[in-house]
Backbone:
Protein backbone atom coordinates (compact mmCIF):
# COMPACT_ATOMS: atom_id res chain seq x y z
CA UNK A 1 0.00 0.00 0.00
CA UNK A 2 1.72 3.14 -1.21
CA UNK A 3 0.17 6.15 0.47
CA UNK A 4 1.24 9.74 0.90
CA UNK A 5 1.44 11.02 4.47
CA UNK A 6 -2.11 12.48 4.55
CA UNK A 7 -3.73 9.36 3.11
CA UNK A 8 -1.68 7.13 5.39
CA UNK A 9 -2.86 9.14 8.42
CA UNK A 10 -6.48 8.84 7.25
CA UNK A 11 -6.16 5.06 6.86
CA UNK A 12 -4.45 4.73 10.25
CA UNK A 13 -7.14 6.82 11.95
CA UNK A 14 -9.83 4.74 10.26
CA UNK A 15 -8.25 1.47 11.41
CA UNK A 16 -7.98 2.78 14.97
CA UNK A 17 -11.67 3.72 14.92
CA UNK A 18 -12.51 0.25 13.61
CA UNK A 19 -10.49 -1.28 16.43
CA UNK A 20 -12.40 0.74 19.01
CA UNK A 21 -15.74 -0.20 17.41
CA UNK A 22 -14.76 -3.89 17.35
CA UNK A 23 -14.06 -3.79 21.09
CA UNK A 24 -17.46 -2.19 21.68
CA UNK A 25 -19.08 -4.85 19.49
CA UNK A 26 -17.29 -7.59 21.47
CA UNK A 27 -18.66 -6.24 24.74
CA UNK A 28 -22.19 -6.12 23.30
CA UNK A 29 -21.95 -9.64 21.88
CA UNK A 30 -20.49 -11.02 25.10
CA UNK A 31 -23.36 -9.48 27.09
CA UNK A 32 -25.76 -11.24 24.71
CA UNK A 33 -23.96 -14.60 25.01
CA UNK A 34 -22.73 -14.59 21.40
CA UNK A 35 -19.26 -15.87 22.23
CA UNK A 36 -18.15 -16.94 18.74
CA UNK A 37 -18.99 -13.49 17.44
CA UNK A 38 -17.38 -11.81 20.45
CA UNK A 39 -14.15 -13.72 19.71
CA UNK A 40 -14.36 -12.53 16.09
CA UNK A 41 -14.66 -8.91 17.17
CA UNK A 42 -11.84 -9.25 19.72
CA UNK A 43 -9.54 -10.60 17.02
CA UNK A 44 -10.52 -7.80 14.65
CA UNK A 45 -9.87 -5.20 17.36
CA UNK A 46 -6.30 -6.53 17.47
CA UNK A 47 -6.08 -6.81 13.69
CA UNK A 48 -7.18 -3.22 13.08
CA UNK A 49 -4.90 -1.79 15.78
CA UNK A 50 -1.92 -3.82 14.55
CA UNK A 51 -2.57 -2.91 10.92
CA UNK A 52 -2.83 0.79 11.88
CA UNK A 53 0.58 0.55 13.54
CA UNK A 54 2.19 -1.22 10.59
CA UNK A 55 0.63 1.16 8.05
CA UNK A 56 1.84 4.13 10.08
CA UNK A 57 5.37 2.71 9.73
CA UNK A 58 4.95 1.88 6.02
CA UNK A 59 5.25 -1.86 6.63
CA UNK A 60 3.06 -3.59 4.06
CA UNK A 61 0.99 -6.69 4.68
CA UNK A 62 -1.54 -8.39 2.43
CA UNK A 63 -2.94 -11.16 4.61
CA UNK A 64 -3.85 -11.81 8.22
CA UNK A 65 -0.93 -14.23 8.48
CA UNK A 66 1.36 -11.62 6.96
CA UNK A 67 0.25 -9.10 9.54
CA UNK A 68 0.94 -11.54 12.39
CA UNK A 69 4.35 -12.33 10.88
CA UNK A 70 5.26 -8.64 10.66
CA UNK A 71 4.09 -8.03 14.24
CA UNK A 72 6.44 -10.80 15.34
CA UNK A 73 9.36 -9.54 13.23
CA UNK A 74 8.95 -5.84 13.98
CA UNK A 75 7.68 -5.87 17.57
CA UNK A 76 8.12 -9.20 19.32
CA UNK A 77 11.64 -10.03 18.12
CA UNK A 78 12.73 -6.50 19.02
CA UNK A 79 11.19 -6.78 22.51
CA UNK A 80 8.78 -3.92 21.93
CA UNK A 81 6.00 -6.42 22.59
CA UNK A 82 6.34 -9.56 24.68
CA UNK A 83 6.30 -13.15 23.48
CA UNK A 84 2.94 -13.45 25.25
CA UNK A 85 1.59 -10.56 23.17
CA UNK A 86 2.70 -12.33 20.01
CA UNK A 87 1.10 -15.57 21.15
CA UNK A 88 -2.12 -13.73 21.97
CA UNK A 89 -2.40 -12.49 18.37
CA UNK A 90 -2.07 -16.07 17.13
CA UNK A 91 -4.50 -17.49 19.71
CA UNK A 92 -7.12 -14.90 18.80
CA UNK A 93 -6.58 -15.49 15.07
CA UNK A 94 -7.08 -19.23 15.58
CA UNK A 95 -10.10 -18.73 17.84
CA UNK A 96 -11.71 -16.36 15.34
CA UNK A 97 -10.99 -18.73 12.46
CA UNK A 98 -12.44 -21.74 14.27
CA UNK A 99 -15.51 -19.84 15.44
CA UNK A 100 -16.15 -18.47 11.94
CA UNK A 101 -15.34 -21.47 9.76
CA UNK A 102 -15.36 -24.73 11.71
CA UNK A 103 -18.51 -26.76 12.23
CA UNK A 104 -19.65 -27.53 15.76
CA UNK A 105 -17.20 -25.15 17.40
CA UNK A 106 -18.65 -23.13 20.22
CA UNK A 107 -16.38 -20.69 21.95
CA UNK A 108 -17.18 -20.63 25.63
CA UNK A 109 -17.83 -17.74 27.99
CA UNK A 110 -14.68 -18.75 29.90
CA UNK A 111 -12.59 -18.27 26.75
CA UNK A 112 -13.81 -14.71 26.37
CA UNK A 113 -13.41 -14.08 30.11
CA UNK A 114 -9.78 -15.15 29.82
CA UNK A 115 -8.81 -13.36 26.63
CA UNK A 116 -10.89 -10.18 26.47
CA UNK A 117 -8.88 -8.28 29.12
CA UNK A 118 -5.61 -9.33 27.48
CA UNK A 119 -6.85 -8.23 24.06
CA UNK A 120 -7.94 -4.85 25.41
CA UNK A 121 -4.53 -4.30 27.01
CA UNK A 122 -2.70 -5.25 23.82
CA UNK A 123 -4.92 -2.99 21.73
CA UNK A 124 -4.02 -0.12 24.07
CA UNK A 125 -0.30 -0.85 23.62
CA UNK A 126 -0.64 -1.03 19.84
CA UNK A 127 -2.53 2.26 19.75
CA UNK A 128 0.10 3.84 21.98
CA UNK A 129 2.88 2.63 19.68
CA UNK A 130 1.01 3.99 16.67
CA UNK A 131 1.27 7.44 18.18
CA UNK A 132 5.00 7.18 18.97
CA UNK A 133 8.06 7.89 16.83
CA UNK A 134 9.55 5.36 14.45
CA UNK A 135 10.57 1.86 15.48
CA UNK A 136 14.25 2.76 15.29
CA UNK A 137 13.72 5.41 17.94
CA UNK A 138 11.65 3.01 20.04
CA UNK A 139 14.32 0.32 19.68
CA UNK A 140 16.93 2.77 20.95
CA UNK A 141 14.78 3.52 23.98
CA UNK A 142 13.94 -0.14 24.67
CA UNK A 143 17.33 -1.62 23.83
CA UNK A 144 20.14 0.66 25.11
Residues:
Amino acid sequence: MSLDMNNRKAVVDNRLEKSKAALEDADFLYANQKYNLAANRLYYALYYAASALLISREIPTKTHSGLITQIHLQLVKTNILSQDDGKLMKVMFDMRHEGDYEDFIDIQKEDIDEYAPKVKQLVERLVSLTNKPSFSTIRQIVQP
